Amino acid sequence: MTSLYNLSIPVLTEVLQTTRQVLEKGEAFARARGLDPETLLSERVYPDMFDLRLQITVILVVARTTINELAGGGQELAAKITERGQSLEKMYTLLDKTLAQLTTVRSADVDGKERVEVSCWFFNQCLRCSALDFVQKYALPTVYFHLSVTYAILRSKGAPLGKKDYVAVFMKDFALPGAE
């Protein structure tokens, strides 16, 4: 059986690494076209959806909330990243800080807590569930959704992103048959 740690912390790390890489590629695309890359942060897939800034912010909040709920220590940082008006530089800083925080979580901090009751906010409602349900049914689907929308926003603006850009980090440990 996969451990709660392996199901959560390494996967969240890969989501944040992918988010950073996709954002960097979108920024490079904008700069190469002589566009202000900061304008990307206000772009949306559809008018009633979150802009790019908030798509990334949700990923950060969920990652930090997961750290807090499973291992403690993320809540203060989660509260600090919900402010509006973030720059690309600030987004990269927050991604890097969250990635650094994920590296401090050890399997001993998380494993064995599958049945511990945790809370999560979903559309202004505080919900209670087991830590395992939190990770499997809330945290991971949420960060994958917002990563997909982040990708879609940048792709819709013309950034040269492909499936490989989305899955490369997740598949880094895969081996080609016969390769040694």
TrEMBL record:
Pfam families: DUF1993 (PF09351)
PANTHER family recorded: BLL2446 PROTEIN, DUF1993 DOMAIN-CONTAINING PROTEIN
Organism: Apiospora kogelbergensis
Superkingdom in the source lineage: Eukaryota
Protein name: Uncharacterized protein
